Amino acid sequence: MNMSTLDRAASDTEGPMLEPPDRVLSTLDRDGKRRWLYPRLAKGRWWRRRRALAYVLMVIFVIVPYLKVDGRPVLRLDIAARQFTVWGETFLPTDTLLLALLILSVFVTIVLFTAVTGRVWCGWACPQTVYMEFLFRPLDRLFEGTVGKGGTPKRELSLPLQAARLLVYVLLNMFLAHTFLAYFVGPEKLALWIRSSPWEHPLGFLVMITTTGLLTYDFYFFREQTCLIACPYGRFQSVMLDRHSLIVAYDHTRGEPRAKGRHKNRHSWLLSQRTSPETTSGAPALPVIGDCVDCYQCVRVCPTGIDIRDGLQMECINCTQCIDACDEVMHRVGLPPGLIRYSSQSALEGGRPRWLRARTLIYPLILIALLTGFGFSLSTRRGLDVRVVRGKGAPFVNYQPGRVLNNFYVRIVSRTHATRRYDLAILRPADARLEIVEPELLEVPPADSVLAPIRIDFPTWITFGDGQETVELRVSDDVGNERTVNFRLVGPKQ
């Protein structure tokens, strides 16, 4: 048994040291050092489909901030203005129910798709996978001399090449950070910021620099560890998946026991060995072996460094690279493809696929209920919200003999898509008079709100009794949006 000097010294003084276990993480060597992954590239049919989808998703990510519906953004998350626009519909902070229903609908949709299709999001649409596998790894292979093949770098990068690669990373991530920022401030304001000094928009500049730094750290250094360590989705899959969910899986029954080597007529030979317990001479038959030739190609192409033959694992992102690699090997040795394929745990054990089961029935019903509630709430949402709050200071003022003054603020929330001018009128009591302190505030921009101060004066006899009287205020615009609110006037008791 070969032992290092440290192990030998420990053995002499304290007895033999325990051997470390196998890798806890695929990116961690047994001595605790970082294990850098250089996955080979299997250009099979699944990879070509994923590449096409990845390029489409990259284009969508870039152009969505510029798309509009009836002059409004398709998607805008304006945190500063507290406005969220989705497909042309603007949601304000007061739309709590609508936002809650929308978020719950997205969550249930993710759970439903995971229950049916497994981790299809991780392998096909997650930005981490899309950009890592189809933008930054190809860039690495260009610098490392393994373009189109992948695997261990053919040359050690010199310091100038490392600096050049890092610079390209920073520039690409800076572009992604600006695109990300456009979702929050809009492309028009972003273009203005780019042309102006950072000191004129320090917060936006700080967000861009921070996002660029985090993206560069992620794609340049942290890489696949985001999926293994940081992302909670893989840990949740044990809850969201069941034995009938679609996964990328190795057919253990067909593949085991493994045997290295190629055989031109391996499949027919295996069939003869499995059906004939003895050879024609009566001697014991050769041991039956599985289809797996133990070539480790499925491990070499895995972007997270796992062995799919070990069964369902948290680190598997369903990228299908192992399927493409294994199918290529099966073709070479004359065996049918599908040793590694899309399947389910139940199907691999001989069961029949079950698309209809409890979770695939309950989740859609929940989703339909949420979407129905969202649609109903959206269709019945009024174009105007009004709220009246009492002003600061004394509750009332006797500003002249026989008359009392109350100060209020009117909060007007416009949900229309154009600037509106609002009119205020007191319906009752008839003897109350309304004064708008700042009339210009009643011109409200689209999907915005204002807080307009008003004054109401009335004769003292109105508040006879308990010193209070209900006032009815109507707020309306020129297109028929109207709200009536009731609140109380306060005066001297008689």
Helix vs. strand class? alpha+beta
Unreliable sequence segments: 1-13
Largest sheet: 5 strands, antiparallel
C-alpha Rg, in Å?
34 Å
Bulk shape: elongated
Instruction: Classify the oligomer.
Output: single chain
Terminal CA distance: 104 Å
* Percent helix: 40-55%
Number of domains: 4
Strand content: 15-25%
Written overview of the protein:
With 494 residues, the protein is of the alpha+beta class. It has 16 helices and 17 strands. The protein folds into four domains: 35 residues, no CATH class; 195 residues, no CATH class; 107 residues, no CATH class; 107 residues, Immunoglobulin-like (Sandwich). Strands 8, 9, 10, 13 and 15 form a five-stranded antiparallel sheet that branches. A three-stranded antiparallel sheet has the order 3-4-5. A three-stranded antiparallel sheet has the order 12-16-17, with no helix packed on it. A hairpin with a 4-residue loop joins strand 3 and strand 4. It is elongated. The N terminus is likely disordered.
Would you kindly provide a brief summary of this structure?
It is built from 16 helices and 17 strands. With 494 residues, it is α+β, with helices and mostly antiparallel strands.
Map the helices and strands.
Layout: H1 5-14, H2 45-63, E1 68-69, E2 72-73, E3 75-78, E4 83-86, E5 89-91, H3 96-117, H4 120-124, H5 127-144, H6 159-185, H7 187-195, H8 202-222, H9 225-230, H10 233-240, E6 247-250, H11 252-255, H12 266-275, H13 297-300, H14 321-332, E7 340-343, H15 345-348, H16 358-379, E8 384-390, E9 397-400, E10 403-414, E11 420-421, E12 423-428, E13 433-436, E14 443-444, E15 449-459, E16 468-476, E17 482-490
Antiparallel strand pairs: 1-2, 3-4, 4-5, 6-7, 8-10, 9-10, 10-15, 11-14, 12-16, 13-15, 16-17
Helix pairs in contact: 3-16, 6-7, 6-8
